[in-house]
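Continuing the batch. This is chain 6 of the set; chains 1 through 5 are on the previous pages. Same settings as before, nothing changed between runs. Recording input and output for traceability.
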Amino acid sequence: MKLAYYPGCVAQETGKELDLATRWVCRALGIELAEFPTFSCCGSGFLDEANEVLNIALNARNLAIAERAGLDLLTICSTCQGMLTLANVRMKDPQVKARVDGALKPLGIEYRGTVTVKHLLRVLTEDVGLPAVKAKVVRPLNGLNVGAFYGCHLLRPADEMNWESGEEPHSFEDLLAALGATPVYYRGRVMCCGFPIQFVKAETAQRVAGRQIDDAKAHGADAMATPCPLCHISLDSFQNQAAKTVGHPLDLPVFHLPQVVGLALGASPEELGLPRHLVPTDAAVAKIGARAVA
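Output for chain 6:
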């Protein structure tokens, strides 16, 4: 399987461990990543609020680059997934397409709408398939209770994302079970992490993040895992601030999606960039043991 790799902004800078883990997992599963340095930011949902056509054009340009190579596009960020998918959907409107085509024409770019945008979670659960992933497990995550945290843009708006229920998804939990972990179900798993207002109303954002972490812990989670780097920033990077805001320690490690997969497939914590996390993952990793099972 060969896919156009769209890492997004965070995985190339503050969240480099996400890119590191993604590359490890893709090599282990035989997924070939085609790289395109000319990809640009997806707009992260903010540009869309200011100028919808510009945001669609920005993402249509990215999609056109993958289309020219004859490849579908792999994302590792829920927000990127949302913005790129919405561009695909909105380009079906003739009026929107005409305006976007006009914006792209000076660049010599045209997007014909043939690219499918696939988040890593969907590639693992549907394209590779859970049986194939499970067959590669050499270090089962037995004894580790993991609360999946989907975030907002991966599943919503459900009628445009056209995948799972935005209220009762199960793909991430199915994947965790295939890896040997015990999935933890809690209401906060489909709620917002607070990131969209982190730099506008920090205390409110941190209270939101703290509430979701507390919810996962209350339901028995040893760790959380998220398919979105922006959610990871809220839940891991800002966890200390969230703890101060809610008034008690949180101390819950947060994994990126490919890191939990990589651990089960035999990667070391260093290969997955776990030492880069602000909330230590050592206790969670210790629950599954350091050695792979032959």
